[in-house]
Write a structure and sequence with these properties.
Two copies of one chain form a homodimer. By secondary structure, chain A is α+β, with helices and mostly antiparallel strands. Chain A is built from six helices and nine strands, in the order E-E-E-E-H-E-E-H-E-H-H-H-H-E-E. Chain A folds into two domains: about 140 residues, Alpha-Beta Complex (Nucleoside Triphosphate Pyrophosphohydrolase); about 60 residues, Winged helix-like DNA-binding domain superfamily/Winged helix DNA-binding domain (Arc Repressor Mutant, subunit A, Orthogonal Bundle), CATH 1.10.10.10. Chain A starts with 5 loop residues before the first strand and ends in a 20-residue tail after the last strand.
């Protein structure tokens, strides 16, 4: 059988945001979703994305669709997976190449929000369009297995951060508590982060030291490939 | 711009095989290639693959095309990457979803070979069709970064193996010598392999012990996704 196969791109963007269910609780892993205006799955929430464009790279299309729907512009997208089950769309065969990215809180705040674009806690989603719940579950798994061996936490923080802030990111991503003393020892013994001469201001008795990542190491090692998006670096 | 995008699937299959340049040398990482019979790139060697089929999952199409062209039937394919640069094919936009697999020597021997199907040393390829050299380079990188933390070497060996055989697989994949005593200590301290009661026969003075992998652990951890091919397990 040979019939048409449509190609789409979608993006899972993670940021640490206030929990919509409890704004006073610690921030949670969150993703922006877009409400569909058409069938199939009209009114359901879905990942930002759309049809691939013959003149654009897949990563460029993913970035453009993301910008058009949410106004978010991450500097780096990594390809997650091509989802291609024959029955994943009720209206014909659609293969979706999915990208993922992490966004710092200050950039996440610039996202459009309204009736049709909204941040959701990644672990507490409604029933999404297509197989998007499964896609988010896979993206969460990939991030959680990756945070321990690369610098993913960096993408959630600003240029500099305290060890407590860094530990909190790891705790949210890994969904478990980490012993502060052990974490400090581990990080101070690592070559990944570098102490700066600055401390965090705010009038506390013993202001905590600020650290930064060693930027000579790439955020996510994608080997000989790159999905850097032209013009956003 | 909206125009047609063709979707293809291709597969990179690695096996340890005799070096075509020196049949008496240690085995090398090898891949089977198929000679193209049509333009573009007629007569050039290319990865086994073809057009995606609207009624089949991507992994099923990859496995079928592989079987049809090379007679190889790996039990497990893992998705590598979707290659989608706008200019990767001279005759229109083609996005290729690429799978990879590892094949044991006894199964690799069953591959068709002839004028239009042949094994090549993966590190010594001619100029291939499309961007297939780049795809193989990425597959090599992915395998070399993965062999240290998962059980990839298992796929290159039979059910049981000696520690020398296991070390040789690691050496070929990682392209460096490993100290035999260190390697033995590391493997004996790992829970990944289990000593059997058997030794390798062959009339040597001190026949080496045979080991097997602990099969309760999956070969490659693909998380909540699976690309197992129905009917091949």
């Amino acid at each position: 059988m040979t019939a048409t196969i449509d190609l789409a791109v979608s993006t899972v963007i993670f940021a640490l945001r206030p929990d919509p269910a409890d704004p006073d609780a610690p921030h949670v892993l969150s993703i922006p979703l877009v409400r569909r205006t058409r069938d199939p799955f009209a009114r359901r929430w879905a990942l930002p994305g759309g049809a691939a464009d013959a003149g654009e790279s897949l990563a460029d299309t993913a970035a453009r669709k993301l910008r058009e729907t949410t106004r978010l512009q991450p500097a780096y997208l990594e390809q997650l997976y091509a989802f291609g089950d024959p029955d994943r769309s009720p209206t014909g065969r659609v293969v979706s190449v999915v990208y993922w990215a992490l966004v710092r809180p200050d950039l996440a705040d610039q996202a459009a929000e309204g009736e049709n674009v909204r941040w959701f806690a990644a672990d507490d989603l409604p029933e999404l369009a297509f197989d998007h719940n499964r896609i988010v579950a896979y993206a969460l798994w990939r991030m959680r297995t990756k945070v321990e061996y690369s610098r993913i936490a960096q993408a959630f923080l600003g240029e500099t951060f305290t060890l407590s802030e860094l530990r909190r990111v790891h705790e949210v991503v890994l969904q478990r508590s980490l012993d502060p003393a052990n974490f400090r020892r581990q990080m101070e013994g690592s070559t990944a982060i570098v102490a700066t001469d600055a401390v965090q201001t705010g009038g506390r008795h013993r202001p905590p030291r600020l650290y930064r990542y060693d930027t000579t190491v790439r955020l996510a090692d994608n080997g000989p490939l790159t999905d850097a998006i032209p013009g956003t670096d």
